Amino acid sequence: MSESEAEGKRQKAVDFMERIGGDAEKFQDMTAAEYAASKNAQLLNPAHRRRIVTKADLDSLVDDLQDGLEEALDPELTREELVSKVKELANLASGEEDSDSDDSDSDDDEG
Known about the structure:
The protein is mostly helical. The chain folds into two domains: 1-50, no CATH class; 52-97, no CATH class. The chain is built from six helices and no strands. Helix 1 crosses helix 3 (32-38) and helix 4 packs antiparallel against helix 5 (79-94). It is flat, with a radius of gyration of 18 Å.
């Protein structure tokens, strides 16, 4: 997530905790980076967002995302499998490498 997204989510957490009478100070004292880390998210480096992508690369990415979304719509997936698939697709869309990409190959063993 970007730093501005993390900051917005941090502020929403502060507002929510204030509304319900929770420990809002916990989030008020955090930076956007600390908030992202607390949610196991990573701040994106803006330099990485400006990479040059060819049309062929973009077409391939769209195809991969479409295939992944079709797989994610399988009603037989467990909640954990769905969350894993969505995270995998989010990493793919953001250009991050996913160290758990072997999970997509495990479908071959089941069928």
